[in-house]
Amino acid sequence: MFCFPDNCNGPLASALPHSSFQSSSQSSAGYSAFYAKLNRRDEAGGWSPMVTDQDPWLQVDLREQMEVTAVATQGRYDSSDWVSSYLLLYSDTGRIWKQYRHEDGLERFDGNVNSETVVQNKLSHPVKTRFLRFVPLDWNPSGWMGLRVEVFGCSYKSYVADFDGRSSLLYRFNQKSMSTVKDVISLRFKSHQAEGVLLHGEGQRGDYITLELHRGRLDLYLNLGELHDSRSRFSSRRVPVTVGSLLDDQHWHSAQIERFNRQVNLTVDAHTQHFQTKGEGQSLEVDYEGNVTFSCSPPQLVACTFLSSTSSFLSLPSAAPATGEFTVRFQFRTWNPDGLLLSVQLNPSPQKLDLEGKLNYVNNLYYPYLLKLIILCCLGRRVNDGLWHAVSLASRSLQITLSVDGEPSSDVELWEPVESRGSLYFGGCPPTECHIQAPAFQGCMQLISINNHLVNLSHVQQGLLGNYNELQFDTCNMKDRCLPNLCEHGARCSQTWSSFSCDCSGTGYSGATCHNSIHESSCEAYKLSGSSSGFYFIDPDGSGPLGPTQVYCNMTEKKVWTVLSHNNSAPVKVQNSSPQRPHVMKFSYNASADQLRAIVTGAEQCQQEVVYNCRKSRLFNTKDGSPLSWWLDRQGDKRSYWGGFLPGVQQCSCSLEENCMDMNYFCNCDADADAWTNDTGILSYKDHLPVSQIVIGDTNRTGSQAVYHVGSLRCYGDKSIWNAASFYQESSYLYFPTLQAELASDISFYFKTSSPSGVFLENQGLKDFIRVELSSPTVVTFSFDVGNGPAVLSVKSHLPLNDRQWHYVRAERNVKEASLQVDQLPLRLLQAPADGHLRLRLSSQLFVGGTASQQRGFLGCIRSLMVNGMTFDLEERAKMTPGVSSGCPGYCSGSSNLCHNRGRCIEKSNGYICDCSQSAYGGATCNQEVSVSFDRDSSVTYTFQEPFSVMQNRSSQASSAFAESRAREDMAFSFVTSQRPAMLLTISTFTQQYITTILARNGKNGYNLQIWYHLQTDRSPDVFNPTPKNLADGRLHRIRIHRVGKNLYIDQDIHRKYTLSSDAELILIRSLTLGKVISKLSNLRRTASKGFVGCLSSVQFNHVAPLKAALTNRGSSLITIRGPLVQSNCGALAESTSHDQHDSNAQKDLAVIAGVVTAVVFIAVCALAVISRLLYQQRRAKRSSGMKEEHRHSTYTDYRTELHLHNSVRDNVKEYYI
């Protein structure tokens, strides 16, 4: 039972007696802790510790448990003594302390800058406590520590029950059974044990609720009406909802369960899990309760914290017993995978015993005198899991025994008796004493016992026993950096004492927090990157929450089509359906409803074909006008229009085209003829696509039958790519809602300008801000402040960026790092402070193209602006903003794809040209295959000018704060060969790493593609066989290989994903070779000697096109050509191959439909169809001529609009952009 006053901000320390104030030391009597009350001026006017005090602190006893909401500090009155930052610890007993952390994990409190000003810090979450301890961290460098304090809050009362592990508290409801649809259960608990049941209740129909501690976390089991026997009720198949961490720290924790029907919120402290219960019921029925076995026993275990991985240690004397034997016992907990736990000098000299935690296990026992024998223990058990683990080390007779957590011990036999001498070092030792190369231990220890005598850590702290360095007493200052999990998109979080890392494997995302999608957002984007038709994963919202989905990208036409198939692509025959018992077919797509919505919304146009073949099966022909058949859109709403017509009108395509077989009806099938006919149409209203279900209700009469077919969803265009705005006044800007970017944000866009500087976008908060700008003609700057001071990243180009050409910018900031990418220039990275502020708190609107002050505005064009995967509609917002216009004038500013395959469109005064230098293709528009014929002795070697990893990460203003880019390769090539085996492509480094692709025999399937990745020279290479097909078949094959870290993606007909054994980068890339190489590896020597006989084309490695470079720069020192090399055109059939294969599937489906229809169609009906077709063609010819006239008018109007825009820009901007 809790009591919370409305106003909980009263002073709590001002009326306390002298005895409530204590300190680690005091300079003299006039500087004692009692004089540390706020605004006090008597004696020395505040508290100051002794200069020799290593760990100073000031403690306040509130006399009873209070709810504390704020603290305030002053320096010592009229002096140069004040504390500029401090830690705040709290405790119920004054012995076991917990460090207060702010909402974002920050530990420091801001203190004073002079001796008189009062600085108040409000607690982001109040604490219920009796004792507070102020621990100074920094103080006035020209003075000393001085403190006066006040505590604000209110009284707090609660009823407390103490459990010893055997007791329970039983609550009986007034009635025998109680059923509820809404529950709120709240309690507070503390324990030193990691296991135990807090709450349990169950009902006779199978309902149950259990709340328990497990491994220091809180597990909730909740079931509503899922029937099972009593044994399965407690089976291992039950899956709990888990929240919290390190809850066995002997401090109070708040738990609350809120349930409404099947929706449940489980909250522990400030962390909440939302979930839906199992079972079929909506209410919880409980009629009896089990025992509460949760334990909170009285003994209070005092711990100490080892803070430093280099210098922490605890030195304790070893008083050996008379027998000469010795024993050491202690408990520890940590997140680190290794660290020195104990070091002991042994007699007779020079023996020494070192106990080290290594590779996630306590497994090394070094005994140098015995040739460093190693004891392995606890195999299969991690001990860096943040839980307490007990270690027992004993020397008896001629044996040393090591045991962890009571498991069977590991032993080492000795040649002679030994005993400990000198001091025992825990957690590390001074450099003069340690001779083992191991990092110091970072974590907590407690219950240290030497020769069965428990060590009093308070005596150590007071200097009465042993010695120590970089230790914190009376607290286990552990922090779970994976709570909450800051890894995105379901990535797994792991941690050490000082940092956390994210495992992005299998997520489809990359980056420090798995924020960046490794897939393009659309088929249009794949086309622009130089890809060809095939199956691809697209991520329609980029770094947003939706995730990737697989689609087919058809790039054989001028338009790039995205094709999503469903589970019922074959024609379906329907009989015996009626309005009362209709035939229902649901369509399931390889994408979620949200993904489908994002794909359709982002496309310029979508369509889906519906074919309905009928015989005496009507669609709408009823007396009351209600439809007999219909379909459901993606929202599940009923639609009764069939192809090509406007929504809401019950008509078919033949009515629109005025060619229905009976003009008295709006659909062919509504004529109800005893002969086969069909209604075929294209659904193209985007808001209703795709079709999710079809209902057929008129095939139950004699001779009645229907065959329908719903085609794949097909969309083309990407509205985001060319969504642009032009800024031609420095004071103009576009504004959007505040960025939602507290923990992570990515911003990407293209710009072109002739102005020397300008702000692309800016969003501000009270103190925080984020800004991307062109700070000079060659420098793009990304700056932000989350409370740790301004952070700035800059990328400098060797060429001007205000050259009136499009340039790409991508800026990202997350809790681990920030990055800035400009075009293909080296990525700049800036690591975030380990324990700094995390959240970017913004409050103003987002300004694009300018600032709130209307100064330093951008003059030029911005397009394709995306933030966290969401596209900003610049064109629509520009329509209502003065000084800004929709679109961007110029040849290179539309979606016409003038340049292909990574070609860059460059504006000229009287047209444009395509820069194909970054493309593996050639020609005027970068769409011509660059192909070369090889024979057995031919090879092309491209030597990099400097080590490639250095070239990628070099910066003219390098700083240690910037890290190198992560491992990433992107390769693409096409080949035709009948040779077997064959050597295709090899990449080698100066450090003996290599990547190679070959054709080699793989079982009975002929010669398949093999991809070898050798990233770690001490391991065997990873070898992948992406397809079982024989590729030495004389046909053209396209290969694309993309790697991010450990994730390897291979496109060969379909998209496949593999996992490498290492995420190492290629270090110091030396060369790339096509064709024959001289290999020293026995398993590749035979294939390498065979070389390659055939044709290679369109070879690309990252941003290098080696094959094209060989043809255009034959005299270059970077290119080495051996053997005959003949330019060819073997890649000319690349697009047609995939196109023909995809079309053949559609033709097969149509052939089935045609067979069904043809078998039952009468000759007279066929003749009528021919006549109708001729009439339709005549009408269409007339309509087409009218449409041509309309198109000419539209083109002329567009030309006049663009001309007018050019003129207005020229008059107002004076050539700031084209």
From TrEMBL:
The name under which this protein is listed is: Contactin associated protein family member 5
Where are its TM segments located? 1150-1176
The organism's superkingdom is given as Eukaryota
Which ranges carry the EGF-like domain? 478-515, 889-927
- Check the record and name the NCBIfam families matching this protein: GGGWT_bact
* Fibrinogen C-terminal domain: residues covered: 514-566
Q: What membrane topology does the annotation report for this chain? A: Single-pass type I membrane protein
Chain ranges of the Laminin G domain: 160-304, 303-476, 723-888, 949-1130
Residue ranges constituting the F5/8 type C domain according to the UniProt record: 3-154
